[in-house]
Amino acid sequence: LFEGWEAAATSDKRRLLTQLLELDARYPVDVQGRVGLEAYIAHARELLTGSADNTNPFDGYVVEIPEGERMQIGSDAFRSDERLGMRVIQDAVFVLVAGGLGERLGFNGIKVELPSETCLGESFLASYISALLAIQEMGDPSRPVPLVIMTSEDTDTRTRALLESNGGFGMPMEQIHIITQANVPAVADNQARLVLSASDPFKLQTKPHGHGDVHTLLFQSGLLPRFEREGRKYMVFFQDTNVLAFRAIPAALGVSERNGLAMNSLTVPRYAGEPAGAICRLVRPAEVPLVINVEYNQLDALLRTSGQDGDAADDSGKSPYPANCNTFILSLGPYARALEATSGTMPEFVNPKYTDASRTSFKKPTRLECMMQDIPRLLAAGDRVGFTDFDRWFSFSPIKNSIDQALKAHADGVYAASPGAAEEKVYRANAALLRLAGATVESAPPREYLGLPLALQPAIAMTPRFALTVDALIARVPTGASVTISSRSTLLLDGDVTLHELQLDGTLVVRAARGVQVHIIGCAIHNAGWVFVPLKADSVDVPPPIAIRGYRVSKLEAVEIEITEPGNYQLVGNGVVRKV
């Protein structure tokens, strides 16, 4: 690292030494007592030795089907778990992992500023904060629900600016805790030699360490003891673009509370061979069984060495091992004790790309990584780990693909995972839940947007203030109600709104402020509505968050009602408001 220093400027030397000191200070003490870069380099050499020898980290393990809860959406048992979860939800801390940019989507910004859907137009971050504020409004307004956001070197400045420019989306800034992930040094070879930047000989090349840093940062921040003093009981970890996860979290919290789980992973049914991690129970002689995520590229070989037929379907037509959504709930006490025991150090792995079968030279520098879902490796032997499985339509709508990538995924028969595909999922889930509540919601065939078929109407958007849980949503459509929504309609509901009689063919927007109750009675609305207009691939007059979807909303005509004065109101006829 110090070649050529005799002729170097003092300022250049200081730059490199400052960076080395910063990297050394950030890396935690390991279980052997090694500190900073000494620990990082030593651990890298150990892992690279195993990688060069092609050692399988799962050698000796037998795979078994883990114990978990498979939820039937809307059943009495499901609603009972929701109610139990809502009783403890204000004792939870919510942790958003927001280290990603939208470059893969064709968007030069942070993913949490993208709209979760384009009718309400709220960003993902605004949607999540809206859910937490709704929890407080429906529970104890004097007990705030903390939000922790893990940013990265790429997203930190922009995330803070997004919050500050929007007043925290209604959440006091002291309620939001931002922890920032830093990169780790890249290494050049199996000896873990550090690498200088190709463009700057006085700067180390660094790379992301992985989202497992969220646990290290929480430990180092000192927030966990504070949360324990406040009486917090759970930590809920969720991803940056899966807005439907908030539909599932209350019931999953109820499962954690009912079963005394130290860790509860939210999962969806998994197809055999699907490129998604699976929750498995790993058993090895003389060791405590481990319930943990196994990455899809390791699962088939591990199952075969366990005497099974590889990554195959069972009688249900799906894998018996549920797909990990990387949304999970940790019991705060066991979690804090686990991190205390390791000083916040997470299990790491290395994944170099070798130039040839000798496994001695890398195609490019690599680094150590860690994953947030590996936390079961740190939990104590008696800590219970399980999963709660939800239907995909109900709980799973992440965004990770551009239109081109989405088209390939669609051709392969899997979820397209584009912004438009996620928006379609939100509308479809809301329509399905209204049907579950007794409403009649017509369906429409998909249309193509930049070649990707999407059924975006009827477009139904419901804020957490309208209904955070299925139990609450069913109560919004009382027994005997008559609600019909045509296939071309758009319905946006926010606040305390009850649907008694509604015939909608067009667009209706109802917003009820806090202290306002609205009953829709004898209401029949027909108008030109809102339509989704396809865009061309080279559209230049459309904002990037919209252009990457392949369509925009054309707001032709609507009945829009917003009531801010507290009281009871009725919405009747063709959209007439009267105070009761």
Characterization of the model:
The chain is 28% helix and 26% strand. The protein is an alpha/beta fold and 580 residues long. The protein has an eight-stranded mixed β-sheet with strand order 2-17-10-13-9-3-4-5, with helices on both faces. A hairpin with a 6-residue loop joins strand 11 and strand 12 (290-294). Helix 3 packs across helix 8 (245-259). It is globular.
Q: Strand percentage, roughly?
A: 25-35%
| Shape by Cα distribution | globular
Strand order of the largest sheet: 2-17-10-13-9-3-4-5
- Sheet with the most strands? 8 strands, mixed
Q: What would you report as the Rg, rounded to the nearest angstrom?
A: 25 Å
Distance between the termini: 77 Å
Please work out how many helical segments DSSP would assign.
15
- Low-confidence spans: none
Structural class: alpha/beta
**In which range does the helix fraction lie?**
25-40%
Strand segment tally: 32
Average predicted local confidence, pLDDT: 94
